[in-house]
TrEMBL record, chain B:
Protein name stated in the entry: Molybdate/tungstate transport system permease protein
Topological type in the membrane: Multi-pass membrane protein
Transmembrane segments: 12-36, 56-78, 90-112, 132-150, 187-213, 233-255
CDD domains per record: TM_PBP2
Intracellular or extracellular location(s): Cell membrane
GO annotations of cellular component type: plasma membrane
Family recorded in the similarity comment: Belongs to the binding-protein-dependent transport system permease family.
Keyword Cell membrane carried by entry: yes
Species of origin: Dyella marensis
Domain ABC transmembrane type-1: 52-251
Main location group: membrane
Amino acid sequence: MRIDYRIEHPVALHASFEVAGFTVLLGASGEGKTLLLSAIAGLVAARGEPFDGLPPQQRAVGYLPQGHALFPHLRAWENVAFSLRGARRREQAMQWLERVGMAGLAERWPASLSGGQQQRVALARALARRPSLLLLDEPTSALDPVTRDEVLAELIAEVHQAGIPALAVSHDPALAAVADRLVLMHGRRIVQIGTPEAVHAQPASGAVARLLGLRNVQRGRIVGAPGAQRLSWPEADASLRVETALPDGTAVDWHVPPAAVRLHDPAAAPDDAIAATFELRQTSPHRNYLGMRCGQARLWVEPPVGYELPAAPMLSLPPDAIRCWPVEEHA
Amino acid sequence: MTPAADPTRYRPGLSALPAALALLLLATPFVGLLLATDWRHFGFAHGDGGAVRVSLGYSLIALLPIVALGTPLAWWLARHRVRGQWLVDALLLVSLLTPPLAMGLLLASMYGPYGPAGHLLERAGLLLTNSAPAFILAQFYAALPYYVMAARTAFEGVPRELEQIALTLGYSPWRSFVHVSLPLARLGLAAAVALAWVRALGEFGAVLIVAYYPQGIPVKLWVNLQDIGLDAVYPLLWVFFAAALPLPLALGMAVRRRLS
């Protein structure tokens, strides 16, 4: 489904993109993402397709706001039955609750449900309206971090099962990672569209890289012409060898993957290695990172398994691992 | 092992003293009433029964237009911000501020036989002086601003997002109001009705001017005092409390039961 909306107030915003499957619009806070969802739902004044000019009650959208907005005076099943009419509404509501695995809690009041349970009731309520588009505002924000991944997987499975295009807006890279399609917003503009794989492989800018949650996105400046270039990194007071086609003096956002950064013993370090001090260790079941302080900046390093950190470590960044994006003028 | 004290549990500290004093001060006039009532010769003056019927019956009737007109106004005030809204706020405040006697005089000058509105209405057969409609009119003006203020606060407490969600679920604004705004504001609205009831029933000044007849309890208290003396006031006052208290007391208890 094609979304094309133009908003004038309270901020000017124009967004045009395709929603297919579970689409995530990723953008920082204050980009107007919630405003865009409200506009599509008809709750703020805007022009655009689909649903142009229709009052909200005639727009076939299932809107799940942040915090889920269940009606506190209605039980779980009554919330789901809200948009249903007729003698069989309770029965139908129970079927929707069954689908999201909440039938056992049908008689509960919203206040007694967990964040994930409330979200599933809100999803059932939105689906019961038989929408042609689902709108989800920051669906991961009210979830318990421990169960978040499972709840998220559940949500996406249900959206896929319902077969309705869904647009989720978020600033959470974890949500972007599970999207079918990713739309990136920066400076109130759409800056990149693609599958998560494609976007992760080729982020269009430093801003996109930051939105994707990439570690080690830094600021710098290209010094020298292509062929004999260096990257000036003022925060660490360092100069790095790089290989780009950018002209001399270009301000850049640059990135180096933590796994590409090499750690050296001072005695065996290459000439242009950077002095660093150990700051913190981040251990997770999947990866281990070391936070290294380089001047004013922090560089994340993913050391080889079992690596013993020397007392005064030096870091070197392979030129072919550094990716540079020219910084847009207004940023 | 002894259980640790709950640090969030309320412990009456220094605040208990002024609170107790406030309660004592509130109770003092009624202790006076208890002591002053001549319980051995407890009896009613002629017409007291009629005054009770007038007060209860007409106050109940007055609640209807107060709620029917005040609720939409309160909702509108809670949900809309328009240029010149301060004028509406000022109008409500002036209505609250006007001394009841002065309100009675203003009502008489507009709705009385020589007033512009009264003149027109009298031709239509509606006499707004010393009549049941006049009595209800005075109560309406006495209680409406209080009701609107309280109901507005009740509606302001309803998250707008929930009303909007109802719209996205296919509800018209009117159905959203009935099924979401009203039920979520019901506790505050109940308090507003209780307040309006108390105000209407106890109104003396405005009623005295525009509806000396039919006599409700507040005016009858004044008449008893003038014609017979204090001993004829107290029994009627007891009846007044017995008649007026149940509705707001029950509403208030219902509200607090819901909140706890």
